[in-house]
Specification:
The complex is a heterodimer of chains A (about 240) and B (about 325). Chain A is globular. In chain A, about 80% of the residues lie in helices and about 0% in strands. The longest helix of chain A has about 35 residues. The relative contact order of chain A is 0.08. Helices cover about 20% and strands about 20% of the residues of chain B. In chain B, the strands form 2 sheets. In chain B, strands 1, 4, 5, 8, 9, 10, 12 and 13 form an 8-stranded mixed sheet that branches. Chain B is globular. The chains are: A mainly alpha (about 240), B alpha+beta (about 325).
Chain lengths: ~240, ~325
Amino acid sequence: MNRRSPATTLAVPLLSRVPPVLAPLTFVRLRALLFVLALLPLARLVYRGLVGELGANPVEFVTRSLGTWALVWLCVTLTLSPLRWLTDWAWLARLRRMFGLFCFFYASLHLTSYVGLDQWFAIDAILKDIFKRPYITIGFAAYLLLIPLAATSTNAMVRRLGGRSWQRLHRAVYAIAPLAVLHFWWQRAAKNNLGEPLVYAVVIAFLLGLRALRWWRERQGSVDSRANSSSMVSR
Amino acid sequence: MLIRRTRDGAPSEITPQVVWKKRRALVQSAAALGLIGAVSRLRAQSAQPRKLDAKPGPFSTMERPTSFDFVTSYCNFYEFGAEKEDPARNAPSRLRTRPWMVQIDGEVRKPRAFDIDELLKLAPLEDRIYRLRCVEAWSAVVPWVGFPLGELIRRMEPTGNAKYLEFTTLADPKQMPGLATHVLDWPYVEGLRMDEAMHPLTLLTFGMYGAVLPSQNGAPVRIVVPWKYGFKSAKSLVRIRFVEQQPLNSWQRSAPSEYGFYSNVNPSVDHPRWSQATERRLGEDGLFVRRRPTLMFNGYADQVASLYAGMDLSKLF
């Protein structure tokens, strides 16, 4: 946790005025503020719907906007842990579940918009889509994987599963994130219009890459220390 | 402004009754839908383009025309970008529609180039309100202005070898930022069989909503073939070639399993990646409206079904 690169060593003094542990009230306020902030994209859609500013193809607009925001909250969720390593702000970890749930919330609305508003609950057409259109297959798979994570997001569920297996289960997000990007990528691929999906692909690859790097270093570290202890005599 | 402020104008500048009535209906329908912001933009835009004198033509649908604002802001014109809003953002400031020449050659007795203003006067212009069905399963109703392509074809005196027409869209990287992306092989090429091109529904189109075409909708001249998916109606034409062999249209070249030469609107033949059975009408089918069924030949079966008698349309899609 304290292994830092030179860049982080430089960054940390600048941010050192923020305490690693927030007073309970400060944290609750911060979380409430972020909660309201995360609802704004939905509020914007509702407002535009009410004043008739959803454009020529409202269903397409709403579905795409909700999908994009699900992806944004996913990126935010995945940013919190690397940010915590960087800053030692322990309270960041306590925001992960909220943003994860916002990802699930927007993904649910995204799916509902497709199933309800676009397909009008025509189950046969939807099933055909899921099997015939790879990007829908992938998006649906990503959503299915999100469900157990959302379902186990309460404190009671964390206790019931035990910290370790809860954490193991929630590593499913490392599969969900690439699937979500692939869903977006594939949807745009037909037109070769990949600028936006590329941004998300780079962000997700970076965030997952940080984890891989850290995991590899930790593994290296433990191998090194074992190697050191066994080679002590010969040294 | 919808109503001209008094200024000593020529009688030819007076908006024809058909046009203002249509506009008035348009504004009312948009207002009825609560599209207040859209209407103000519609007014701002419809004030500028040059009006075209036209008489009402045949085959017009009684359906309500889609708002000018939607038809001009939700476009597929990949030469100006792949997103729906890109053409409206990029085309008006970049596309130079004057001077503009259209080369007409191939299997004709008198190949020649037309200046756009000469081509425009070749035959009397007509108002034609057509349904437009995009291959992406959305649709619109557009009041076009033009004359039947057949008028031009007859004057060109095609030879006996002329079996198809090939249409080529401008491909100028200086004017068209979308050419930098390789969505398709540029220039955009489309084609029609001679009997399709000669069909009275097929319109050589110079305007819409009573005025010249906006750049993002294919100015200064395009084809409109209302019973085929929208991509068959090539925009911003620089060449019409009469040929013996069936042209390889751009989308077929790019994805032959997904797009054919004919591309007739057909609710019973799905696109490999989505259903064509239903569609969503721009500006009308709001958030809580069910998709409407797509009609065979986009509702023009009475006029065109005989062109395809005996053909297997699931194979020749």
